Each structure stands twice: as structure tokens, then as C-alpha cells.
């Protein structure tokens, strides 16, 4: 075309979590039985939505108002309910106008980074959830600025590395945290959270904290919400119902703005996010309307607790199986429903393979791994998929130089999950020995 129409950051928009599905579906057609451990969708993995929850949604759908526009910020009674929830924690206090609804947190992430000045950067975790790191990098047209999560220390943020990334990069205006974390499953203790807040205060930054998994914490871990530790630092917390209820198809998430009036520039920035939402009119009405009724239902807490207990059992099964494999750095997952495993540095190479009986599948995998730029862990993921049908995501696709993989803890059949973990462990041993 006579004019370049491609956005400066188009090359930074990648999402290997779903890209690997294309490979898996191709191999399925060639006869491979696939175990989808790549996408964090509890419903797709067989989660049964309880009847009482379905009835609440059905009753709400009978109301004419559920078919109309909502206010741009979101349903007022729902925002009042959520603001009261924040205020009961005893930290920062907010009102309903400090809450803004989006069509899922993907929409919120796009707006939050998209409305930043192009040369203003948010330092993201590494590994980092792809939607955050890609959106931040795309807005700037450059690779992410990242701080290290330490695989030898429970995947906790390295605060010294975080400070260096801030101190020596004056373009950094904000810090991203994901707590509990995706992709690592780490749950940050209070002292880590307060350390990040202290850095934001010291360098006059704002904080973004993705808390979509905040109530999915187990193995005795404790954490705090950002609202409880933020003090007077400007911040945005991100929450939603896709994972907790779970209702990912609702596309319903929201942000909570803390200390929005403490800094004129931050206040103007938040206003620009609201204005960009006004252009779209509003977010989906039905899930907003029914949200308080679901969260206050007498069976809700027990339902969530049963799911959390199941993830805790799965986390320990996976940890106890994979920690016995030489060559891996393995941490127990304590929140959300993901597990990230890193290979010891230098242990992977481009000669390792796994046996694949199906000739067509083997030829296809060999074509994939021969593509220029294929990382060593992506090579492993392709061979794992072709040999065992287990579909995981290469860790290097999460804005990190570490080589490894991310898997989920969502399989409901415990014996089937034990078999998947055992097969995965044995495949890794064979791959590293090849």
C-alpha cells in the first residue's frame, strides 16, 4: 500500500497460549489424542456450573433491563456493592465512581496500556501473562521492560532487579503485579507487596495489580489485596468473574482506582480511560446485574472452597511428581491454577527428541521445530505434544528468557491428572536423555 498501515507495535502482539491450539488441532486430525493443558478455562475442562448459579442468571435474563445498555462506568448498585467490599478490608477507601467495568479484563488491559503516552512504560513481571506484556509492548512499539520473578525463590519478584529497572529507565511510569500470579501460580506475601508499593512511592510511579485470582489461594499461603497495602500511592486493581465463578464467557471485568485524586496527571490518565470507554457506550449488562446476587448467595463460598481444595490437591500432585525430575526447577503452585516449570540453564538443545510413532505426526513436528527462531522450550513442547498428546505452553512465550513450560491444574479427574503428570515427567526424562 502507498502508506504503511501497520501499527508500530503490531509485532509485539503474540499469544502462544492459543497459538499452540492450532498445532494441537492439526495433530488431532492426524490421530493424536490431545490433553489440553494450555488454556485456563475451567468450563472447557469440565467445570460444572451449579444449578443455583444458573437459576440466578436465568432469572436476571427475564428482566427487560438486562437487555439494555448499562451506564458507561457500570451498573451503579453493583459498583456500590464492590466499593463496599473494598472498604470493608480496612485499607484505602473508594466510592462507586472509582470502579469502571469492561468487557473482560482483556478489554481493560487494552485500554489501560493503550491510553498511556507512547514513551511511558510499565515495567512488567518476567515471566508475565502474555496479554499484559504484549499490550504494554505494543503500545510502546518496543520489547517489554521487565523485572525478574525468581524461580529459585517461589517465583517471587526480585525487588532489587525491579528497582534497577526503574532507576535506570526514566521512561518507566508504572509497575505491574499479578497476584496470585499467572503464569507461575505464585502468591505474594504482604512484605513483597509492601516492598513494591515502597518503590512506587520512592520513584513517583503508579501500580497496576491484576487480582483476578485473588480468592483462589491455598496450601496455607496468605496474601493481601492491593487496597490493603497501597496507602497513598496511585493504583489500579483489576478484577473479574471469569476465573472465580467461573464465567469466562461473560466477558465481565472491572478496575478499581485507588488514590485517583492524589496526582493530577494520574487523575487525567484515568479520565482518559473512562472517555475511551464512553466511545463504546458500556460493557455487557447481564453479568453486572447478577454479580452481587451470586457473590452473596449462601452456597457460593462453599462452592468456591470446593474448587480451591481441588486445585490444592492438583498442585501437590504435580509438584510431588515433577520435583523428582532432574534438570527442572519446580515450585509448588499456591494460587490460581497454573504451574510454571523451568529447565536448568543450558540443559535443552536442538538435538533432543521424543519418539513419535505416527509418521505424519513426526514429519509435521520435525517441520515445526526446523522453523528459524524456534526456542529450545518450544521444540520440547512440540515433541511433547506429538509424542504424548499433552499440550502445554512454552515458558519463553511469557516475556522471559527462561526455558520451560506452563501447564494448568484444571483436570477434574484426579486419576487422569496423576496419569498426565506421570506421563509428562517420564517424557521430560526421556527428552533430556536423548
UniProtKB/TrEMBL annotation:
Cofactor(s) the protein requires to work: pyridoxal 5'-phosphate
Gene3D superfamilies linked to this entry: Aspartate Aminotransferase, domain 1, Type I PLP-dependent aspartate aminotransferase-like (Major domain)
InterPro entries membership: Ala_Aminotransferase, Aminotransferase_I/II_large, PyrdxlP-dep_Trfase, PyrdxlP-dep_Trfase_major, PyrdxlP-dep_Trfase_small
EC numbers for this chain: 2.6.1.2
Aminotransferase class I/classII large domain ranges (all copies): 49-421
Pfam families (UniProt xref): Aminotran_1_2
Keywords, alphabetical: Aminotransferase, Pyridoxal phosphate, Transferase
Molecular function GO labels: L-alanine:2-oxoglutarate aminotransferase activity; pyridoxal phosphate binding
Family according to the record: Belongs to the class-I pyridoxal-phosphate-dependent aminotransferase family.
Protein name from the UniProt record: alanine transaminase
Biological source species: Desulfurivibrio alkaliphilus
Amino acid at each position: 500500500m502507498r502508506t504503511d498501515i501497520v501499527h508500530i507495535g503490531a509485532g509485539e502482539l503474540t499469544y502462544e497460549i492459543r497459538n499452540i491450539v492450532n498445532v494441537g488441532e492439526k495433530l488431532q486430525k492426524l490421530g493424536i489424542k490431545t490433553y489440553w493443558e494450555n488454556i485456563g478455562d475451567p468450563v472447557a475442562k469440565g467445570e460444572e456450573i451449579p444449578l443455583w448459579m444458573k437459576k440466578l442468571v436465568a432469572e436476571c435474563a427475564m428482566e427487560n433491563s438486562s437487555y439494555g445498555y448499562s451506564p458507561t462506568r457500570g451498573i451503579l448498585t453493583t459498583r456500590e456493592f464492590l466499593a463496599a467490599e473494598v472498604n470493608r478490608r480496612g485499607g484505602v477507601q473508594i466510592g462507586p465512581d472509582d470502579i469502571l467495568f469492561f468487557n473482560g479484563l482483556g478489554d481493560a488491559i487494552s485500554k489501560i496500556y493503550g491510553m498511556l503516552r507512547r514513551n511511558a512504560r510499565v515495567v512488567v513481571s518476567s515471566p508475565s501473562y502474555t496479554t499484559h506484556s504484549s499490550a504494554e509492548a505494543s503500545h510502546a512499539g518496543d520489547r517489554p521492560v521487565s523485572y525478574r520473578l525468581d524461580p529459585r525463590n517461589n517465583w517471587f519478584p526480585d525487588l532489587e532487579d525491579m528497582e534497577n529497572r526503574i532507576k535506570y529507565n526514566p521512561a518507566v511510569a508504572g509497575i505491574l503485579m499479578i497476584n496470585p500470579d499467572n503464569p507461575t501460580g505464585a502468591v505474594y506475601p504482604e512484605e513483597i507487596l509492601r516492598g513494591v508499593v515502597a518503590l512506587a512511592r520512592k520513584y513517583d510511579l503508579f501500580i497496576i495489580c491484576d487480582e483476578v485470582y485473588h480468592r483462589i489461594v491455598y496450601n496455607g499461603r496468605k496474601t493481601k489485596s492491593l487496597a490493603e497495602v497501597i496507602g497513598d500511592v496511585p493504583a489500579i486493581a483489576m478484577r473479574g468473574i471469569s476465573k472465580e465463578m467461573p464465567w469466562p464467557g461473560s466477558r465481565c471485568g472491572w478496575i478499581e482506582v485507588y488514590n485517583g485524586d492524589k496526582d493530577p496527571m494520574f487523575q487525567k490518565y484515568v479520565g482518559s480511560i473512562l472517555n475511551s470507554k464512553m466511545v463504546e457506550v458500556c460493557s455487557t449488562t447481564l453479568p453486572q446485574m447478577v454479580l452481587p446476587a451470586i457473590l452473596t448467595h449462601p452456597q457460593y463460598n462453599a462452592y468456591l472452597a470446593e474448587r480451591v481444595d481441588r486445585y490444592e490437591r492438583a498442585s501437590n500432585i504435580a509438584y510431588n511428581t515433577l520435583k523428582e525430575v532432574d534438570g527442572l526447577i519446580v515450585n509448588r503452585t499456591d494460587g490460581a491454577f497454573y504451574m510454571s516449570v523451568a529447565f536448568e540453564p543450558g540443559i535443552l538443545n536442538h538435538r533432543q527428541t521424543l519418539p513419535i510413532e505416527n509418521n505424519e505426526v513426526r514429519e509435521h513436528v520435525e517441520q515445526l521445530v526446523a522453523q528459524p527462531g524456534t526456542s529450545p522450550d518450544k521444540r520440547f513442547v512440540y515433541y511433547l505434544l506429538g509424542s504424548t498428546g499433552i499440550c502445554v505452553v512454552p515458558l519463553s512465550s511469557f516475556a522471559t528468557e527462561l526455558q520451560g513450560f506452563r501447564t494448568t491444574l484444571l483436570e477434574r479427574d484426579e486419576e487422569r491428572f496423576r496419569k498426565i503428570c506421570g506421563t509428562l515427567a517420564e517424557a521430560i526424562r526421556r527428552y533430556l536423555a536423548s
